[in-house]
Structures
1.
Amino acid sequence: GVLLSGDSLQVVFENLDQESGQEGGDYSLRARIEFLTRQWEGVRLTWSEVRAFEPARRDVPMGWEVQSPEGDLEGSLVAVTPFFEAAEGEGPMLPVDALFEVMGTLTLGGAELPVRGLIRHSQR
């Protein structure tokens, strides 16, 4: 995913745990904050809001809480424009691929920044 806050913050994050669910997954985040570069490992994105996606017969996230292990990065994101697609599969629940336009806030070192961006989401 990618998050932006004007020219002052750009964040790129990667899910390191491909089988994450509502309890969250482990993410690696790399950020450019003005002229500094920071990296966090083991950041949790926990689902804070869900909705039913009937074509796949499962719940999908619509909001997330963000928390670094050290507590120096935290925030919340909400889906503004979601796009869901159920894939072919066997079993009661089908795979889902999704792309979300999100907005929210990230707090870094006590400074709260408004962010917007994109998150790609998969459930198998």
2.
Amino acid sequence: MDATGYIDIPLYTAYKKDSDSEYLDGSKYRYALKFDKDYWPLTVFWSLTTYRMSGNIRKSDPVRRYLIHSPLFSGLLKDADGGLTIYLQRESPGRDKESNWLPPPRGLFFIALRVYLPKQDPLIKRGDVLSLEKSVICP
């Protein structure tokens, strides 16, 4: 953080393909995005936003949500190992997991992960990349 109080390094990453190198498709698949408990410090601002492949934020989904971000973190369900799983699927992952549910648009989409890090954060040196695991083929 500099003298003005601003965080120095924005880290933006876009995910268009899953762990099988297929384009993300909200009409065909469900996905689970798993963050390790040590992925980044919980004190930084981060956001995970879904977009149609055309680049537009979609306007309607079952829970009127197109992003999950750090101000919501205290209300998100943590995994048993302390990590965090975000469920990207059209239908509810179950009432107990709805806080972690980010419904994707129908059809092809991508995810933008934005993290705002202090200059010396170790995440920058590690260069971590997340993996989107396909969990189920939708009927």
3.
Amino acid sequence: MAKKAKRTLKPGMESASRWTVRGVAVPLQRAASETARAEGKTLGQWLSEVVEAALADAPSRLPAATAAGWREAIEARLERLEGVVGIDAQRAAAESTAAVAN
């Protein structure tokens, strides 16, 4: 009996294992296959792009502690920026007053 040829991995693939998705309606399977073929891609390439795009559009699911940390960091930066803007506004008002006086 002949040995199976070892599969070579394409860039971005971490293993040669197959991924089976159950429960996808046959019309959706056909539509996905036809769309991939029309775009000159394999079904795997097309699905990877679709899933990646969907995940990029999905809201972040950060743990609450991480989200709280980000919120605190954003609020601190906002306070610093508001301080800088306040200083610039005071400076602009002073310069405007000085220009009118001259």
4.
Amino acid sequence: MDAENTAKIQVVLGNHLLDIPDALGRYPGLVLKTLTDAFFFIRVDQTILNQILLRSIFGSALHAKRDKTPYRLQAILKSCQSGTLDKSSLEAKVYRHGGITALVALFAAATDDKRTSSLLNTLPEDELEGFVKSINAVEPHEDFQFLVEQLKRKKMSQSSRPTKKMSTPGSCLSRYRQRQLPTHNETQGLGEGTGHFGLEFGIRDG
């Protein structure tokens, strides 16, 4: 997307114009219902639906409390940093596009929702890159941020022995069970809200 022409959605509530996060904080059910109702008027392919689901999964993972480092995260991070991880693996791609923060988000999301890996693998390379880069724009929970900062400060251990290249089948995410994407009937209903509001779409230059 052209950086000079980016769309922004705002909510009109009475005489107030709110950004989406503020509006969701006040009237989550009403805002979500209005957003989903918009899909009556547009057609989207499965890739877009997968991206919507992925943003929900990653958003929950970024804002969740955590007291443990996801399994094998440190080992995979070291392999990414040393260049020994298979470059075609999902972990290597995520690290290449988004660095440590994105890799931590990947492991957190995969720990919380086993569909994460299979959903990400449905995205074309350019859309995967765009999605991963957008992760860094999200303000995460302090537990997540603390984990990222810990990993950034941690120096890679030095070893005189040659490292063995890791293959994609041996990566940690490949061991997660693959699940079918949820059907419409399996998704949770949205909470009802009260009141009326509209959505305003604008194009910002610069």
